[in-house]
Design brief:
The chain is built from 22 helices and 3 strands. It is mainly α. The chain folds into 2 domains: 121 residues; 333 residues, Neurolysin, domain 3 (Orthogonal Bundle). The protein has a 3-stranded mixed β-sheet with strand order 1-3-2. A hairpin with a 2-residue loop joins β2 and β3. α10 crosses α11, α12 packs across α14 and α15 packs across α18. The longest helix has 33 residues. It is globular, with a radius of gyration of 23 Å. The model has no long low-confidence stretch (mean pLDDT 96). The structure holds zinc ion. Zinc ion (ZN) binds next to α10 and α11.
Amino acid sequence: MSQTLEQQLSALKERLIEVNDLRSAGAVLSWDQSTHMPRGGAEARARQRATLSRIAHQKATDAELGHLLDWIGARSADLSEIDAALVRVARRDFEKANKVPADFVARASACHAQSYAAWSRARADDDFGAVADHLRANIDITHAYATYFAPFENIADPLIDAADEGMTVRQVQALFREIRPALVASVKVITELPPLDASCLKKAVSESDQLAFGLDVADRVGYDLERGRLDKTLHPFCTRFSAGDVRITTRFREDDVTDAFFSTVHETGHALYEQGVARELDGTPLGRGTSSGVHESQARLWENIVGRSRGFWSYWYPELQKRFPAAFGDTSLDAFYGVINRVERSLIRTDADEVTYNLHIMMRFDLEIDMLEGRLDVADLPEAWRAKMVEDIGVEPTDDRDGCLQDVHWYSGYMAGRFQSYTIGNVLAAQLYNAALRERPGIPSEIAHGDFDGLREWLRREVHMHGRALPPNAVIEKATGEALHAAPYLAYLRGKFSELYGLDLAE
Ligand code: ZN
């Protein structure tokens, strides 16, 4: 590599790391706001975060950065593989950031902040009418945003591509079509059986004991506590400040130990991904997970495929009973395994089981596309929501609070591009787990002995370490030898729930 190319590359990295530092500082402020900040800090904190994000945006869209990318891009044949990936990703970020004018970004975030505040009140009051105009404004602002990325086939394509690079509405719909009939049929068959009694979960366990148990499991699974910590919050999340500091949060219900536990395991899956990204990518645009869907696959693999498996609990349940004898001493492993996997016709997405969960996602996706394409008027959303719930899940919310006001997504950001990642994550989790088993068939028995190293290291090597150096489709194909597809996920659900309910769920 010529000396000038080397100099220009290090000038590029310096600029990119500066943008990353500003964004990481913003992430610290945001983490603090969601965990420890007293209420009185809210107003100044909003301003501080806006200031940091404005400076970061200025630096990320600086013309000088564009010149560096052009200059180096013209010599990409001389770059190492990793530097070529850096330039590819930095160019994608730069172009995305530059297509949208700064004053539009400011207007959109003001619109979303107002809409979020209105949604919080509307949800508390169960008053959809109070937030309907904000939703209309958000549809307009989402249209305007997407238009900066024209041409596209579907108005939501640019938003989906921002979260799940390489995916489009058409591809997401094809994936959904592949899984919907089997899920609807399974829900129908399973819920005709008498419901499992979940009262054995409704035992009081103190917050500190719940926290300690979740953290011990996270630690055993491989979450490095020298480079992480767990705090309490309202809506659990994982956040990365650097390779040396990846934090998770969880929430608590005094009378249901599984709520905090599975939130902790879910966020641990996200954190293992971030902690597993190769150190040398840290601080650059390559130094984090490659897409929302791949990220979600890591969370759901640990939460559901591992964390809700019989093998996992054959190891951990005796420990749970030992720690909380009053709560679980009288409940058998079989009964516990059954209730943590029980399938119900439920109203709330975040409480949904593995069989119904994706049906909640698909109806949201359909509704947002219908609204964006003008087929569904905002005024008719509550009714359309109820109709879809009845059709797919077989239960109807009696109010909008448990209906179209339950999720924050449509009210706090652009109207599309978020829900699909959850289902992509579920589907991909099964595909990755299968690929890991092909190479290391002993993984289930390792898990049943409390040993998670084999699975975690396989994921680290195949998925985590690449960060954004590989785009999502390349990660999937490299790790599994196939493109994203639903068959392994459907087979996983069929196997698990046929056995659990003593049924033969059809293909
Ligand atoms: Zn997640």
